[in-house]
Design brief:
With 305 residues, this protein is an alpha+beta fold. The termini are far apart.
Amino acid sequence: MNEHLIRDVVNLASGQWLNILNNLCGDIAFKKAQVCPACGGKDRFTFDDLEGRGTYVCRGCGSGDGLSLVGKVNAINPRQAALMVAPYVGLSVDKSLDKAVIERGRRKAEQAKEQEVVKLAAKQAKAATRALTILQTCKPALASNGYLIAKRVQPFDTFELMKPVHLYGDYRVNAGSLVVPIFNPTLTGLQFIKPNGEKHILAGSKVKNGFYPLSSKDSHQIYIGEGFATCAAVAECVPDALVLCAFNAGNLINVALGIRVCRPKAEIILIADNDESGTGEREAIKAALAVDGSYIMPPAPSEVA
């Protein structure tokens, strides 16, 4: 068998993983919360097939691509998984691989990736346009906003919904919710925060590398945090610093690296959410190490935004 078996099988399987996985791993639906074929549960598993790679996410056993799922479900190594998949993509394990077939598979994989990029760009452009439209119907948030009162922080030029916004299907965010713009570097999306603290991102928003600046100060000292309320509390304590909200723990490193590129001599401090899972601290430390910065952590999970 060709020494590049795994690479060749992955290329040929591009865009075909749903059928392959349904044959090798049990019933799997596209983009639906469902039972994980590897570790069970009720709705912990989602098959999203990004770029046709058979990608999935499971809250129980992690994430990966189609080949890794075949391996995980059948308790076998990657090469053994590739041997299982090979017949479904037209490869014989007893003969040398057809170079023409492999080349067609490679081109098909590249085309799938290109199409995914185009689709994502169109989705993000649509979200940016809708974000601007929604902001035009909002009013500046005041300290009397329900969420801001609960968190005891100032609005820092955020907005408040004046009428409900439908996010998807029949689900809507009601008037009175806080609206935080996402810049990347221009407006690319919105985060909605209900008075009870429930958060939603406008579908299609480009969050990766995105941020919300809580001031326009050109400061040498830059704080980067995860949630708006946490960042607002820090901004009130260090009014001469620039504080940026990154919206989620995984985005801390992206924002920090972007700042380091344009501000190579700035002092960067990462604000770690003190959550029970430890995710906030891990991601803040990772970001701090990546930019040679430091990090601080709020005192208790109950105070984390």
